Amino acid sequence: MKVIVVGIANQRTTLPIGAFPVTPGAGPSYHHEIRYSVGGIAFAVARSLAALGNEVDLAAPLGEDYPTSLIDNEAYRFDLSTHLCTRTLARTPRSVVLYAEDGTRQVFNDLTDASRASFRLSDLQPDVADADITILASRRMTAPLAAELADAGLPFAVDLHEVGPHILDDAPGEPSEEFAQWVAPFLSARYLTMSAERVPGREKAALTALAHASRAELVIMTLGCRGCLLLVRQPDGSWPAEPVHVPASPVRITNTIGAGDAFFAVFLHELLTCRADPITAASRANTAVARLLAAEPAHGGIGVDRLAELLGPACAPRVDPTAVLQADPTIVEA
């Protein structure tokens, strides 16, 4: 599969802090634990897809500084092309991640002047016309691009991340400013993903509202350790009355960095490269994320072989859909 991933790549500094909250005063001394690596949602998705054997082009706004050299070197290790990246920023984006022993984390992002960057269809030509899918990993810089992809009939996927309660409250009527800016431009995507983090207790209703507002073929909501909810449009164009819950295996969490990005990448890989049905693709993505969550943290970078090992076999066997078509008592409506 040929993929273009559009969004942020950054220099990431990671620091273990034991537990939250951080106690003021003199901190501990470290041994090989404060690390520089490459982060950013777009890079994380692109890296996972490349480790699974896909042909991936990254489109990210960069500068002409040492973090860009770090990003280029990491892209080379994973056989990622960066020829679509721009090099016009004053400073390449940075992030600092504090992570605790229980897997919780706090992320500080400095987008620099990337917050004003954007990509248009012309920036991605001619590659975008040959891509099987374009993944928009940053809503901030890709709203105009989403409209152009839709007008050109080119398939794209979007992770909406933490969509708030407004998806329920105003999507059917007068849209709020948040809905108009952060959701509406992406409703023409073929595949839509969102997180349940901001709609606890209202997961099914939020996912259903998103599906009915969109033109997507399928929509997914990640539920953290509970797996995900999935709605697939039926042949007649309607949506099922109830989403499918695809559960995840319980694991001891040691590392949550990039879990959602890995889910999105593995799901699309299984769906498009392996031609799996959506339930199998979601189950396979849950399994891959469970491995990542239970793995020793690799915050200072990870090798291609190790990432491929954690993400699992190239194309997993199909699962029995009846095994996951069951009610989950932990998913309730408010």
Structure description:
With 334 residues, this protein is an alpha/beta fold. It has ten helices and 14 strands. It is globular. The relative contact order is 0.14. The mean pLDDT is 88. One of its GO terms (molecular function) is kinase activity. Residues 3-288 form the Carbohydrate kinase PfkB domain.
Number of strands: 14
- Quickly give the CATH architecture: 3-Layer(aba) Sandwich
Q: What is the number of helical segments per DSSP (H or I, 4+ residues)?
A: 10
Oligomer: single chain
Count of discrete domains: 1
Unreliable stretches: none
Order of helices and strands: EEEHEEHEEEHEHEHHEHEEEHHH
CATH superfamily: Ribokinase
Give the DSSP E fraction (strand runs of 2 or more residues).
15-25%
Write the CATH fold name. UDP-N-acetylmuramoyl-L-alanine:D-glutamate ligase
| CATH class bucket | Alpha Beta
DSSP helix fraction: 25-40%
Features:
334 residues; four-stranded mixed β-sheet; 10 helices; eight-stranded mixed β-sheet; 31% helix; UDP-N-acetylmuramoyl-L-alanine:D-glutamate ligase
